[in-house]
């Protein structure tokens, strides 16, 4: 198999996703690494077609997403799907879509400028204020009253979400999906104290929620940030292709899934080609013995009609 890993500038010196590419290479597969910020990419010759699949771990609005969409547009498998990436990258869109699809998310408001935070309804407090692009985990604030909100200093060039705070255990749970496997890892919350980060058993509720998120957003490799509350699990964030910190055997599991997806896509293409070839052969073998057609009432006047003597 032949894979293209699109490597955004931010991840040049980070292990993910290159450890997965290295694993696939060790298994005998061919890997190309495309750095969209440092190269020109041909879109009109056979360069895009030569790969069995494209893999992208992207930043918000990174140039790699354009290349992924171009490959997807011509029928090459991509991990993750570009539309799924765009859905979860804008946290406002993700919250609206998740709620519309029945996923448990807190009451959430979109705020186009920090000064508009004063208009958040009083009965929504306490609220968590965070950037809608999800790029800065440090810029997350728990605001308990409108008076506290008035004292908040934020970046005026950033859009924000105001999400109703839900009482929870004081730590986050990351549900990591490495293709077919689901892992649950406890993580320190930016709103609470530090906790020891450990893998914990995946409950039925966690498994069901992870499956639902994948089905709703069309994701293959993803993470779901959830909180344990008195009313069950609540989704507070969704990430395409996270770093999977704390997940055992993550490299092998992700590499296996990428192979599985590429082989499945190849089999589908081959079956499609077989069906098309068979249909073309059937069409070629089907033909009329005589192409002459005339109105019935004019049959006896048409000199081209051949008559057969029946007696």
Explain the overall architecture.
By secondary structure, this protein is α+β, with helices and mostly antiparallel strands. Among the domains are: 2-79, Rossmann fold (3-Layer(aba) Sandwich); 107-165, Dna Ligase, domain 1. The chain has seven helices and 13 strands. The chain has helices at 18-26, 64-73, 82-89, 91-100, 146-151, 204-217, 250-285, and strands at residues 2-7, 30-34, 53-57, 78-79, 108-111, 127-131, 141-143, 160-164, 171-178, 182-188, 199-200, 221-229, 232-240. The strands form three sheets. The chain has a five-stranded antiparallel sheet with strand order 11-10-9-12-13. A four-stranded parallel sheet has the order 2-1-3-4, sandwiched between helices. Strands 5-8-6-7 form a four-stranded antiparallel sheet. Helix 1 (18-26) links the parallel strand 1 (2-7) and strand 2 (30-34). Helix 1 packs across helix 7. The longest helix is centred in the C-terminal third of the chain and has 36 residues, at 250-285. It is elongated and about 100 Å long. It starts with a strand and ends in a 26-residue tail after the last helix.
List keywords for this structure.
single chain; 311 residues; alpha+beta; Rossmann fold; Dna Ligase, domain 1; five-stranded antiparallel beta sheet; four-stranded parallel beta sheet; 7 helices; elongated; ATP-binding; PreATP-grasp_dom_sf; ATP-grasp; coiled coil; metal ion binding
């Amino acid at each position: 198999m032949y894979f293209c890993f699109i490597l955004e500038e931010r991840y040049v010196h980070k292990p993910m996703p290159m450890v997965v590419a290295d694993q696939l290479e060790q298994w005998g597969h061919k890997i190309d690494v495309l750095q969209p910020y440092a190269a020109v990419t041909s879109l009109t010759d056979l360069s895009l077609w030569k790969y069995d699949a494209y893999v992208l771990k992207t930043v918000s609005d990174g140039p790699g997403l354009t290349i992924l969409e171009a490959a997807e547009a011509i029928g090459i498998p991509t991990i993750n799907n570009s539309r799924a990436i765009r859905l979860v990258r804008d946290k406002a869109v993700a919250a609206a879509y998740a709620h519309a699809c029945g996923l448990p998310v807190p009451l959430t408001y979109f705020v186009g400028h920090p000064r508009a935070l004063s208009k958040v309804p009083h009965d929504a407090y306490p609220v968590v204020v965070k950037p809608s692009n999800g790029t800065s985990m440090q810029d997350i604030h728990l605001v308990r009253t409108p008076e506290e909100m008035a004292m908040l200093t934020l970046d005026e060039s950033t859009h924000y979400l105001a999400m109703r705070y839900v009482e929870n255990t004081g730590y986050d749970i990351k549900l990591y999906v490495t293709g077919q496997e689901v892992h649950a890892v406890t993580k320190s919350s930016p709103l609470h104290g530090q906790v020891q980060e450990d893998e914990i058993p995946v409950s039925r509720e966690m498994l069901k929620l992870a499956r639902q998120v994948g089905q709703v957003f069309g994701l293959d490799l993803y993470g779901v940030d959830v909180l344990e509350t008195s009313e069950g699990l609540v989704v507070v964030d969704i990430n395409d292709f996270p770093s999977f910190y704390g997940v055992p055997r993550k490299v092998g599991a992700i590499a296996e899934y990428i192979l599985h997806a590429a082989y499945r896509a190849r089999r589908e293409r081959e079956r499609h080609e077989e069906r098309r070839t068979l249909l073309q052969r059937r069409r070629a073998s089907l033909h009329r013995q005589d192409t002459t057609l005339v109105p019935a009432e004019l049959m006896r006047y048409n000199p081209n009609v051949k008559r057969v003597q029946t007696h």
